[in-house]
Fold:
Amino acid sequence: MKTTGSLTSKESFAILHEIENMKYPAECGIKYSDWREQKDKEKNEAIKNLVPEIGLGCTICYYSDKRAATVTKIVSPYKIEVTFNQTKCIDYYAGEYEILPELEGAAKVFTKRRNGYWVAEGQSYKDGVLLMLHYQNHYIDPSF
Structure:
């Protein structure tokens, strides 16, 4: 297996999907809870090691809100730009949105931190805006 630094985006996502698709082997002699804990650790590590590429759908997490976005520029292995996707509101109170392929607004810059998380440039991990590369979602919390 390649080292994390030399993985392509496709290879890094293939590793994540392989872990997600692993089934519990009933005759393995290990408790399900222990197996599940190990699988979750491997999944979290794979998510931290995902390699972005231009055109990858992603999610910007603003506390309870989530904004659908797309990777639009790879500045370096540790710095990327993403742009919001346009969305169509289907049901505001149910949090249903259709994510459209068209992009809007200025690009936002995210940097990969030592802990593996992508955080908005200039913000701390603890209270910062996070970027999730492994899914694309849009949700505006109607209670605020």
Q: What stands out?
A: The chain has two domains: 4-48, 57-132. Residues 61 and 127 are 11 Å apart (CA to CA). Residues 4-48 form one domain.
